[in-house]
């Protein structure tokens, strides 16, 4: 009917080709420009990432190697076990430090005077006697023999060997004296200094001595905390998402809840820490610094993320599947549990893992509930005092010793490694279980 | 129910349907001329005109073939339903009847030639007395049904159908008269038989026109009124 | 001919007291039932389902107005009409699929045999086992072909033991004309089949629970002509055992598969009649305009 109107409205034909050609150059230029903007932005971002990684890895890499000094130790029976009973108690309480001192004196007979001797003994880490005791307790037959034992060097020796102390500086400005440098050089020349993989970093808890400080305590703390977080937030999050998406009536109340969940996801994490402090510690009287409380707090923080991710995963299940199930006479619960949930699960897991990765990197709320304490012991349960990796990093970053700087970076590398692992797991899960319909 | 006069969404379909209908009406017009000319050739003893009528039947036959092709194309491409289907089927059937009417006209023309192309004396006027009024009735019926088809008018179609009874009665009385003449004077038998063929042709034209009228009623009302009494036909056709 | 009892004018939105039921109408009254709008005979000789004065509202929108229609046993009835005319809405009333839509409100009376399907005593799960559904887009579960068909019997607890289930699954696939194509690949996912096979799998899935009525919502709209032809052939075979209601946009399809056709327009049931009558001589102008393509 209005066909004639249409044809009347058609503008007179002009030379379209010429018109288009005229503007073509400008269009192409705009496109090139836009592409260039994008490339610049991405390169800039990448450059910063590379810089950050280079910095962290460059600083942290040496921390995975630790200097040891080979000492010929004579396990003198008179020092260790004068009575000759081989009683384990006697063996445990013997003065192993004296053996080390004797060995050092043997290596550097020219050193005299208490001050110099103390400096000489200072080359060896204070944990070395424990090492000797360990050897003897394991094999008492060693008593009376002389063995070449690799003992842990002190942090200053380690730092110097790694080249992190500028020898050109004035003596008073460095943590290590000319004399000590001379001894270390002699030990190096004798081939008594060896570098080995730093297992202490992974097996020890925190320590005031850098060479003895490790992240195991923080790792276990993180593990227990995240376990609590996962055990709480995943089932609750999935259940909430399923209820809100599939069962809840759509009314003002559910709208309100939805808005609040979205807002919760944006609440600064430290607020959750304050909440945890007020509710879990002050009101319920749960222990401070415990992974249990940390896990509870992080659950609160992670829940909104999991619920939102879960709901997104549920909405992405095509309605045709729901209709098919309902049309077959499945009840609503059967529809959800037989069809919708299995299809949404990869998405939910992915969301949860990413939420967990965020929780792993979180430190602020944990500061509020006392997980920032200096804790030497590796936690053995959910109520032991503990700290977590990011907090450990924060603590170490505060310490002045040069050796802690590299340990801080090493801990960051471990943390980043776990993050990448978790995100990778999320991707693998998604790819693996993603189904086509 | 009523035939929709709204346009199809596919405009080309409208154009094709209109084209088909125009072809049929054009064919109807040609057929009408043929009958008039055939009867005229008889009246005027015009043998040239009669030959012309015979020759022009080929045009009508050609039109029939063309219309049939178009119909098949329409059915194959548009899958018509409802009133479109009824229209196409009615037109298709009407074409067959029109072609037969054309054949009857040709038959009359041949009879004209047979009657006047011989050395013997022409038939007496009284033998031909019934031809003119019957020809008038037949052409009126054909004209009426073509009009009804052009206007899709049920009432006109009913009138045409009603007219067939008149024509049949005329034919019966003419037949009786011819028999009387033949019994009175056996020499007239030759001409009388020719005239008999002519009035039989005219009677057949009426039947075909009635058929077309019935198709129009089917087209409009969707009721098949073939082989029913005139009363039923009228009731079905004029019922709302 | 079954004498059916049908109550009319019974409000259904849960407010009905099931004890207070109006006296059933006589069958003569039912035949005489004439709606102010619908042209044609809405009753069936042997009704499987009977709908009276069904209204559907989506929030404020009156999506279906006063629809009354019988669906005869073992007949294929087609619903046609332009988009948004309410045909799918009406179809979904027949197995209460509209229940899932929160804003949807339904009044009127729909009866399956002797049961008012909107009665409180009727569980929707039981209803859907009796009134199966096949959807527009083939929607097999992302499970194996076997599991797809076995799902319904399983959730309804219709079988005892693996052997019985196997038999039922094979029989259903057989009836859906799919067995030859999938016999060797029962463990492959249902989604690996072609579109037409998927739709036949959905039909097999629906008939596995042995429903009385099968609703089909444009079952061939996503399929090519060959697959469509196979489904149409299947519908014709299924008619022996089931009552089939099919919504379709293809008028040729409605003409081919159905015995009765109902034309919907903007929420009204305009005309219902024998399919051959609807397609050769529709009585309502709207029907005529729609089927001949004169719309709008």
Mean pLDDT of chain C: 84
* CATH architecture classification of chain B: Up-down Bundle
CATH fold-level topology of chain B: Methane Monooxygenase Hydroxylase, Chain G, domain 1
Strand content of chain B: under 5%
CATH superfamily of the domain at 37-140 and 211-291 in chain C: P-loop containing nucleotide triphosphate hydrolases
- How many strands, which pairing sense, and closed or not: the largest β-sheet of chain B? none
Cα shape of chain C: globular
Low-pLDDT windows of residues of chain C:
1-35
How many DSSP-defined strands of chain C? 10
Domain ABC transporter (chain C): 49-291
InterPro entries (chain C): AAA+_ATPase, ABC_transporter-like_ATP-bd, ABC_transporter-like_CS, P-loop_NTPase, PstB-like
Protein name (chain C): Phosphate ABC transporter ATP-binding protein
Pfam family, one (chain C): ABC_tran
Briefly summarize what is shown.
Chain A has 19 helices and 3 strands. With 437 residues, chain A is mainly alpha-helical.
Task: Please describe the topology of this protein.
The complex is a heterotrimer of chains A (437), B (240) and C (296).
Chain A: H1 3-9, H2 16-60, E1 65-74, H3 77-80, H4 88-93, H5 96-107, H6 114-121, H7 128-138, E2 146-152, H8 155-161, H9 178-189, E3 193-197, H10 200-203, H11 216-247, H12 252-265, H13 269-283, H14 291-315, H15 319-327, H16 332-360, H17 364-368, H18 389-398, H19 402-433
Chain B: H1 11-44, H2 47-78, H3 82-116, H4 131-151, H5 154-184, H6 189-221, H7 230-238
Helix pairs in contact in B: 1-2, 1-3, 1-4, 2-3, 3-6, 4-5, 4-6, 5-6, 5-7
Chain C: H1 27-32, E1 47-58, E2 61-72, E3 76-80, H2 87-93, E4 104-112, E5 115-116, H3 124-130, E6 131-134, H4 145-155, H5 162-175, H6 179-182, H7 195-208, E7 213-217, H8 225-238, E8 243-247, H9 251-257, E9 260-265, E10 268-274, H10 275-280, H11 285-291
Parallel strand pairs in C: 3-8, 3-9, 6-7, 7-8
Antiparallel strand pairs in C: 1-2, 1-4, 4-5, 9-10
């Amino acid at each position: 009917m209005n066909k004639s109107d249409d044809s009347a409205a058609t503008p007179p034909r002009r030379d379209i080709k010429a018109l288009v050609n005229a503007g073509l150059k400008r269009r192409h230029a705009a496109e090139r420009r836009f592409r260039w903007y994008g490339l610049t932005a991405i390169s800039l971002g990448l450059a910063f990432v590379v810089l950050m990684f280079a910095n962290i890895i460059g600083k942290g890499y040496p921390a995975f190697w630790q200097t040891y000094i080979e000492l010929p130790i004579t396990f003198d029976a008179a020092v260790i076990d004068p009575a000759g009973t081989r009683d384990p108690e006697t063996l445990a309480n013997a003065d192993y430090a004296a053996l080390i001192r004797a060995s050092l004196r043997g290596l550097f007979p020219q050193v005299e005077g208490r001050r110099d001797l103390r400096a000489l003994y200072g080359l060896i880490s204070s944990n070395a006697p424990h090492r000797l005791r360990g050897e003897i307790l394991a094999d008492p037959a060693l008593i009376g023999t002389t063995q070449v034992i690799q003992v842990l060097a002190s942090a200053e020796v380690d730092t110097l060997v790694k080249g992190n102390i500028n020898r050109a500086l004035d003596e008073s400005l460095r943590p290590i004296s000319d004399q000590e440098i001379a001894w270390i050089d002699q030990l190096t020349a004798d081939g008594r200094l060896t570098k080995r993989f730093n297992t202490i970093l992974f097996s020890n808890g925190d320590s005031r001595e850098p060479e003895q400080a490790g992240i195991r305590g923080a790792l276990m703390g993180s593990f227990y905390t995240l376990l609590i977080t996962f055990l709480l937030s995943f089932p609750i999050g999935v259940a909430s998402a399923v209820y809100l998406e599939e069962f809840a009536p759509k009314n003002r109340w559910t709208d309100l809840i939805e808005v609040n969940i979205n807002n919760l996801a944006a609440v600064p994490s430290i607020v959750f820490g304050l909440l945890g402090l007020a509710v879990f510690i002050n009101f319920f009287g749960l222990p401070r610094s415990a992974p249990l409380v940390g896990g509870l707090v992080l659950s609160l923080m992670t829940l909104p993320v999991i619920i939102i991710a879960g709901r997104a995963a549920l909405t992405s299940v095509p309605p045709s599947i729901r209709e098919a199930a309902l049309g077959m006479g499945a009840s609503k619960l059967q529809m959800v549990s037989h069809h919708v949930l299995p299809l949404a699960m990869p998405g939910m897991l992915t969301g949860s893992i990413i939420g967990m990765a965020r929780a792993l990197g979180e430190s602020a709320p944990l500061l509020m509930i006392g997980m920032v304490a200096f804790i030497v012991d590796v936690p053995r349960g959910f109520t032991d005092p503990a700290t977590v990796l990011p907090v450990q990093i924060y603590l170490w970053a505060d310490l002045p010793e040069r050796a802690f700087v590299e340990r801080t970076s090493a801990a960051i590398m471990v943390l980043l490694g776990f993050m990448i692992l978790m995100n990778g797991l999320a991707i693998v899960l998604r790819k693996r279980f993603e189904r086509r319909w | 129910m009523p035939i929709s006069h709204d346009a199809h969404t596919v405009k080309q379909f409208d154009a094709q349907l209109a084209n088909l209908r125009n072809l049929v009406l054009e064919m109807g017009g040609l057929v009408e001329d043929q009958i008039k000319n055939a009867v005229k050739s008889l009246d005027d003893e015009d043998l040239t005109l009669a030959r012309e009528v015979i020759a022009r039947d080929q045009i009508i036959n050609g039109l029939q073939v063309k219309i049939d092709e178009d119909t098949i194309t329409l059915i194959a491409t548009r899958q018509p339903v409802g009133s479109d289907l009824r229209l196409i089927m009615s037109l298709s059937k009407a074409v067959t009847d029109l072609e037969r009417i054309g054949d009857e006209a040709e038959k009359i023309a041949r009879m004209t030639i047979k009657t006047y192309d011989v050395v013997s004396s022409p038939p007496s006027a009284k033998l031909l007395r019934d031809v003119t009024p019957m020809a008038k009735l037949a052409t009126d019926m054909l004209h009426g049904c073509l009009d009804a088809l052009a206007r899709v008018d049920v009432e006109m179609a009913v009138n045409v159908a009603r007219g067939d009874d008149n024509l049949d009665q005329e034919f019966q009385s003419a037949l009786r008269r011819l028999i009387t003449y033949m019994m009175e004077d056996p020499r007239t038998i030759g001409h009388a038989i020719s005239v008999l063929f002519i009035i039989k042709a005219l009677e057949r034209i009426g039947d075909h026109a009635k058929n077309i009228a019935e198709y129009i009623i089917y087209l409009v009302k969707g009721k098949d009124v073939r082989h029913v009494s005139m009363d039923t036909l009228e009731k079905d056709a004029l019922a709302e | 001919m079954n004498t059916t009892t049908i109550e009319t004018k019974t409000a259904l939105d849960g407010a009905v007291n099931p004890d207070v039921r109006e006296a059933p109408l006589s069958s003569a009254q039912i035949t005489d039932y004439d709606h102010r709008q619908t042209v044609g005979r809405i009753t069936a000789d042997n009704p499987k389902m009977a709908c009276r004065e069904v209204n559907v509202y989506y929030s404020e929108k009156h999506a279906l107005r006063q629809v009354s229609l019988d669906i005869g046993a073992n007949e294929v009835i087609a619903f046609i009409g332009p988009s948004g005319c309410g045909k799918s809405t009406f179809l979904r009333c027949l197995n209460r699929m509209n229940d899932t839509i929160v804003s949807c409100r339904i009044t009127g009376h729909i009866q399956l045999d002797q049961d008012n399907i909107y009665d409180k005593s009727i569980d929707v799960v039981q209803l859907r086992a009796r009134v199966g559904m096949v959807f527009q887009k083939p929607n097999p579960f992302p499970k194996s072909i076997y599991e797809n068909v076995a799902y319904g019997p399983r959730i309804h607890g219709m079988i005892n033991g693996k052997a019985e289930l196997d038999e039922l699954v094979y029989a259903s696939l057989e009836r859906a004309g799919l067995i030859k194509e999938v016999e060797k690949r029962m463990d492959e996912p249902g989604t690996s089949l072609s579109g037409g096979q998927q739709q036949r799998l959905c039909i097999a899935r629906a008939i596995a629970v042995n429903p009385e009525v099968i609703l089909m919502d444009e079952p061939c709209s996503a399929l090519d002509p060959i697959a469509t032809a196979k489904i149409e052939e299947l519908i014709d075979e299924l008619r022996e055992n089931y009552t089939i209601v099919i919504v379709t946009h293809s008028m040729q399809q409605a003409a081919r598969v159905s015995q009765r056709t109902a034309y919907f327009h903007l929420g009204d049931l305009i005309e219902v009649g024998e399919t051959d009558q609807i397609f050769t001589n529709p009585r309502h102008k709207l029907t005529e305009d729609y089927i001949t393509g004169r719309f709008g």
